[in-house]
Amino acid sequence: MSLLKKNLTMALWLVAVLAGYCQTLTGDQHKHNGDLEAAIAAYKMQLGLDPSDRKIAYNLASVFALTYYQKDSAFHYLEKALVGDSALMVLTDSDFVDLLEDERWGHIEKQQMFKYNVQNPGIKNKTLALELLKRIALDQSMDYFVHQARTSFMENGHVPHWFYPINAMKRQYGKDNYAALLEIIDLYGWPGYSVVGELAADAPLLIINHHPDDSVRVEFLPILKKACSEGEGSCLEYAKIQDRILVNNQQPQLYGMQFRYNADRELEPFEIFEPEKVNARRKAIGLEPLEHYLKRKINYIWSIEQKKY
Asked: Is residue 184 part of a domain?
């Protein structure tokens, strides 16, 4: 082969590789934009370049699960992604809600709990912990599609028609979760960190926070505050619930955890009581400064000068 042909062949190969690589960079963006089939194609191409990339395998599993008709592929790539992974976070991932009733999911649960417990012994009730982790996934279910609806609203100024049945399904999951939570509390008492671990112990707080009836939050608030102060529950979720109760009663919030859309369809925090002291209140329960939280959560610039109590 002549030098010219060799150079041309190498150049074409390089262009093809770079083109494929650039295309795979859009996998996350395709998913973000709601184009799941394009995301699958892009992630597959990237995984072809590096079959050992467990993060891409995980992304593939999640988009296959989100399509609601490709469970076999979802489990195939999820098994690849979890090799060497001993975390429990996957068990709370709402992208995998459609897999929860499949017997293969039970294998994933036992596998992850075993690996986690080897490195982090201490969860007293593993069965209850697994049930609560599943409840977190169900609590966050449909969030991917809700995000798509929110994006559509911000771009077009109206809620897309397909959001309503999705929201109805999300509400039903919420009702089922709350009924299950009451049974759990009746059988085991309040599931704190020392019983089910920090991640699983967040489930009751999420369920209560997302309940449509504010009286439920009011009823449980003293328990949540006590768990926060004793290190048995999330102070972050307690703050969210406390603020939601106040906002729902047209009162200024304490911690800056509740947001609303302004006239420009951008998120901003609801009114805050004595905003110049909000960071002192947040620090008292172990929360980061509000400016850091708002920037990360909603890309909002908080610049009110703070005072100490």
From this structure: no
Query: Is the pLDDT higher at 126 or at 36?
Result: 126
* pLDDT at 17 (0 to 100): 46
User: 7: pLDDT confidence band, cut at 50, 70 and 90?
Assistant: low
Pick left, alpha or beta for residue 191 (phi over 0 → left; psi -120 to 50 → alpha; otherwise beta).
Answer: beta
Report the percentage of the chain scoring pLDDT > 90. Answer: 72
Residue 179 resides in a domain: no
* Beta carbons within 8 Å of 234's beta carbon, 6+ residues apart: 198, 201, 202, 205, 227, 228
| Structure token digits, residue 219 | 């009823």
Of the candidates 184, 188, 175, the residue with the CA atom closest to the CA atom of residue 204: 184
Model pTM score: 0.80
Task: Centre a 10 Å sphere on the Cβ of residue 105 and count the other Cβ atoms it contains.
Answer: 19
Look up the CATH number of the domain holding residue 59. Answer: 1.25.40.10
**89: its two tokens:** 């976070």
- The answer to whether residue 205 scores a pLDDT higher than 60 is yes
Residue 278 resides in a domain: no
Question: What percentage of residues in the chain have a pLDDT greater than 70?
Answer: 92
Domain housing 40: 1-84
Q: DSSP state, 272? A: B
Decide if 126 is inside a domain: no
Tokens representing residue 15 in the block: 């262009």
Total domain count for the chain?
1
**Which residue is listed with tokens 């085991």?**
188
Q: Residue 151: pLDDT above 90?
A: no
Structure-token match 């329960």, residue found? 285
**What is the torsional sign of CA 269, 236, 61, 127?**
negative
